[in-house]
Amino acid sequence: MKFLIIRFSSIGDIVLTTPVVRCLKKQVPDAVIHYLIKPQFKTVMEPNPYVDKFHVLQEDWDAMIEELKEEKFDYVIDLHHNLRTLRVKNALKVPAYSFNKLNLRKLVFVKLKWNVMPKVHIVDRYMETVAPFGVRNDGEGLDYFIPEGAKVPLHDIPHSHHAGFLSIVIGASFYTKKLPVYKLQELCQKINHPIILVGGKEDAKEGEAIASVDPIKVYNACGKFSLHESADLVRQSKLVIAHDTGLMHIAAALKKQVIAVWGSTTPSFGMVPYYGKNFLQRNPPPYDDVQVHKLWCRPCTKIGRNKCPQGHFKCMKEIDVDEIVRLVNFRLGRNGAK
């Protein structure tokens, strides 16, 4: 059987689809898996051995559809489910199974603050799309494959960090999902351990400001490494502190301990770090959530905003830095109870 899986973006959401890809490939005899994705995100999935072929979302829609029609798919698995994926499904005219985004429930939660979200991780909801084929969640969690050429050698990071470090992912796709620079500076000052700041080129300037509090202890790697190389830094870390962003999910895929910091979004949307039941049966809970509880305006969005709609940004400004430091010490095996 030949399947087209659709997930256009973004990094974290794409990584969260990997159990569907793996389980479909391994559990359906002779399954051929194609994946339709935005070109700028193709690198995320390209090393995945369970995908047989990639297609990219093109500006020339008609050419893209013709390319897809030539593949003669048996089924479409739509894990994005928007108007563009509807156009693809209508054009291909083959049976399709689509992910339920629960947009109405999210709207109720955001607008009325009534938490009507199911207590089900988004991965398990993705898996429902392939249940008709007898595919079940294998419990192995997320996949993220780092190409051999993207492994970061020790000589590419400061000697002071060779004995071990923790990573802080300072970026996020939206302003309201990021701790302010001054909070990250305070955090770095209070953590007594070598730190690597991880992020893209767009985070480099803020990384410089954060690292300036202690240039020996804190190494700003933002913008110096590719996505796969940044993922490898995460892989080498003892612990990862991250916002609700793609590298948080990559860290979970790599089975790293994670302290997840939440601002305008919330763990209740079902996108917390996901490790799979097999890992959790063998290991203690590997992550912690840090958030401002009982804040009347949370969540103000399902994906993030470019500014706080209330103007006060309490969801991040009131994050307890000492609580994060306590969790860091606990997870590094230092004195103190969780």
TrEMBL record:
Gene Ontology BP annotations: lipopolysaccharide core region biosynthetic process
GO molecular function, one term: ADP-heptose-lipopolysaccharide heptosyltransferase activity
InterPro entries per the UniProt record, alphabetical: Glyco_trans_9, LPS_LOS_Heptosyltrfase
This protein's GO CC annotations: cytosol
Domain of life: Bacteria
Keywords of the record: Glycosyltransferase, Transferase
PANTHER family, per database record: LIPOPOLYSACCHARIDE 1,2-N-ACETYLGLUCOSAMINETRANSFERASE-RELATED (PTHR30160:SF1), TETRAACYLDISACCHARIDE 4'-KINASE-RELATED (PTHR30160)
Name of the protein this chain belongs to: Glycosyltransferase family 9 protein
Annotated source species: Flavisolibacter ginsenosidimutans
Taxonomic classification: Bacteria, Pseudomonadati, Bacteroidota, Chitinophagia, Chitinophagales
